[in-house]
Amino acid sequence: MTLSRRHFLGRTALAFAGGTLMSRELSALARRRKGELTGVQLYSIRADMMKAPLETLKALRAMGYVHVEHANYINRKFYGWSAQEFRKILDDLGMKMPSGHTVMSGRHWDESKKDITDAWKQTVEDAAVLGQKFVISPSMENTIRRDYDKLRAFMEVFNRSGELCNRYEMKFGYHNHDFEFSETLNGRTLYDIILSETDPKLVMQQLDIGNMINGGAKALDIMQKYPGRFESMHVKDEIAAASGHERFESTILGTGIVPVKEVIDLGRKWGTKHFIIEQESYQGRTPLDSVKEDLKIMNGWGYR
Fold first, then answer.
1. Of 234, 268, 297, 302, which sees the most CB atoms within 10 A?
2. How many C-beta atoms surround the C-beta of residue 52 within 10 A?
């Protein structure tokens, strides 16, 4: 078939317009995903990290992991290394530590001075050395969470910790388990109190989309209630537990009851930037094999 010059130019213009539109869409997608990352919580391979931390980090890097989140900070050491030593190890491996878990407790607040203690100030300083963006507390003491007035007062300590972290261009954060959704004070869930009593500019939330299942909550419901509040997520799936005191345990992504892809896609749409894989139970696999499969699945979903 012979095309006239007019028809040829018309089709070329349409193709160009379509290409330009696609280019703009891709550009917008790139801008929207700027700063997004996929990483792994090192608690997923805790036994390996305790036994052979350097070799374990090398194995993670070989799988394709660049970002890791720590869960071991004792006496100013990360897995036995100082902040400076750990930073050098990660740098040498081409890895980064965007966030870490250290429980902020009552001992980190000096009531007589109305100030954060030196121990917590050092925690924040060491996080800054590692280049963290988020300093995250992953739990809460019973004495605080079971008293309404104490809990509200401690949320002001959270805000003060946020102010401290801001001085280092970081944010303080909180990571949920299950009790925040199953326990109530004055007719409100602990999670509602935590989110209403903290300043989002000072305290970010890391939503663990699997932990909450044992507390009777669902990630999509919580996200709809608090849209845009979750700068980071623990990406986790759950199945019925084979043993133990909890009803559900974590498993390979996409094989359990959590609609993982739907949750993280909504998180991405609403501004979540950090997607941290965590698996704590393995159903016969090794922990390293499990997180390797989890990363492969995340990559297949478009998260890298």
1. 234
2. 12
Q: How many CA atoms lie within 13 A of 65 on its CB side?
A: 29
Q: Are residues 50 and 16 in the same domain?
A: no
The two structure tokens encoding residue 50: 């305790």
My answer on whether 229 and 93 are in the same domain is yes
Instruction: Render pLDDT for 71-116 as a digit per residue (tens, 0 to 9).
Output: 999 999 999 999 999 999 999 999 999 999 999 999 999 999 999 9
Percent composition of the chain: helix, strand, coil (DSSP 3-state, to 5): 50, 20, 30
**Structural domain harbouring 243:** 36-300
What is the distance, to the nearest Å, from the Cα of residue 174 to the centroid of all Cα atoms in its chain?
A: 10
pLDDT in tens, 110-133: 999 999 999 999 999 999 999 999
User: Is 209 within 8 Å of 233 (Cβ atoms)?
Assistant: yes
Q: Pick from 131, 100, 105: which is nearest to 120 by CA?
A: 105
CATH number of 88's domain = 3.20.20.150
Q: Are the beta carbons of 211 and 227 closer than 8 angstroms?
A: no
